[in-house]
Amino acid sequence: MKKLILISFGVLMLTSCLKDEVPFQYTIRVFVTDADIIVLSFPQTGRSDFEYTYNEAEGYYEFSNLMNAGTYRIVVQKSGYRPWQRDVTLGENRVASINVTLTRN
Fold first, then answer.
1. At CA 103, angle to CA 99 and CA 104, rounded to 5?
2. pLDDT at 72 over 90
3. Which of 29, 37, 96, 103 would give a disulfide with 77, using CB separation of 3.0 to 4.6 Å?
4. Architecture of domain 23-99
5. Strands of the 84-90 sheet, one edge to the other
6. What is the pLDDT of residues 25-34, one digit of tens each?
7. Where are the chain's structural domains?
8. What contacts 43, CB < 8 A, 6 or more positions away?
9. How far apart, in whole angstroms, are the C-alpha atoms of residue 50 and residue 35?
10. pLDDT of residue 15
11. Residue 56's CB: how many other CB atoms inside 10 A?
């Protein structure tokens, strides 16, 4: 009986360690010049409060540490230009780079 308890405890500890592994993380990079507004949303959940960083040297906005695979919607707006929108699906490819060209009104 003691052996069974020790084995069960060992399996429980192993399962606990596996759960603490870092899950897949996804990244979307949006290359655009001087946007006023850039929003990333995840329509499956209705979430649209993703934070981003701007890499001035490379000229892109980066949404990183995204935890869900699936389809995200990117919306870019700038005063005097038509809004731009595109869906991008993340799954096997964990990083997506999107080039945005805005068109004047």
1. 145
2. yes
3. 37
4. Sandwich (2.60)
5. 37-41, 70-77, 84-90
6. 999 999 998 7
7. 23-99
8. 71, 73
9. 16
10. 40
11. 7
